[in-house]
Amino acid sequence: MLEVKNLTIEYENTTIVRDISLTVESGEIYSIIGKSGCGKSTILNAISGMLGKNGRITGGTISLLGNTIFENGRYTPYLKKVLGKELATISQHPDSSFDPLFTIGNQMTEVMRVSERISKKDARTKGLNILSRLHFSDPERVWNSYPHELSGGMCQRVAVAMALSNKATLLLADEPTSALDVTSQAEFIKQLQEIVQNDNLAVLLVTHNMAVAGALADRTGYIRNGKLEEAGGNVFAVTAS
Ligand SMILES: Nc1ncnc2c1ncn2[C@@H]1O[C@H](COP(=O)(O)OP(=O)(O)OP(=O)(O)O)[C@@H](O)[C@H]1O
Ligand SMILES: [Mg+2]
For ligand 1, is residue 208 a contact (CB within 6 Å)? Predict the structure, then answer.
């Protein structure tokens, strides 16, 4: 599904992570953990081509669904084709996923229209369905709300809903639970696991929260000194060492 091989990433000629390799299969959640500033977001941004002007991949390859996204120092046209569709992303700052001037419904409709011709009515039916799968008790209200009318935690769940509105096969999620309290975190974990299983979704998740990683991940990678060490299922054993 996703295959990252020997990836080295720099910001302004400073190496942030080096020689990173990982794979994520369908129906699997891989979580990357590590201290603040160790390069977790950098890895996700490199995969989705969002490193910005001063960031650069200096070595390695990335492929998705058997197609190359990055090799020989450059991104392939395939990335543009899948971004926002098969390859969905949730950024670390959920507010940045929304335009404050439009309702959630409007924004979800726009996202769906990136990949399919769909009427407003059908988009609404599909959107309400996705929101109810994320267990919003009143999907209609969420659909008609502006982002500022929702709590931070609700915004994070809506960001997931938006990301999933185009039948994603891989979800890159950066700290998707940071705005949630412990109870909502537990609910979110259950919901994400349900979606992963039902849709055979692959998820690459970044978190600094060991409990979230422990509960969610099938596999865990720990970043230490710019290297990624795969830790198997039990992250607690690694962090204690
Ligand atoms: N646009 C940028 N330009 C220059 N340096 C950057 C840029 N973005 C990140 N960095 C640096 O790269 C390193 C890794 O940052 P990154 O955001 O990937 O960390 P992180 O592991 O996601 O941290 P956190 O848990 O706090 O989100 C940090 O030292 C950071 O200062
Ligand atoms: Mg980060």
Answer: yes
CA angle 37, 40, 42 (to 5 degrees): 90
In short, whether 46's Cβ falls inside 6 Å of ligand 1 is no
180 compared with 70, residue with greater pLDDT: 70
Contact at 8 Å (CB) between 33 and 207? Answer: yes
pLDDT of 222 over the 90 cut = yes
Average confidence (pLDDT) over 213-234: 85
Query: How far is the centre of ligand 1, averaged over its atoms, from the C-alpha of 37 (Å)?
Result: 5
> Taking the domains of the chain in order of start, what are their residue ranges?
2-240
Tell me, in angstroms, the distance from the centre of ligand 2 to residue 144's CA. Answer: 31
Q: Decide: 51 and 42 in contact? Cβ < 8 Å.
A: yes
Cα–Cα distance for residue pair 84/194, rounded to 1 Å: 21
DSSP, collapsed to helix, strand or coil, labels residue 221 as strand
More confidently predicted of 101 and 209: 101
Return the residue whose CA atom lies nearest to atom 9 of ligand 1. Answer: 42
Q: 2-240: CATH homologous superfamily?
A: P-loop containing nucleotide triphosphate hydrolases (3.40.50.300)
The CA distances from residue 14 to 30, 54, 57, in Å, are 26, 10, 11
Minimal-distance CA residue to ligand 1 atom 14: 39
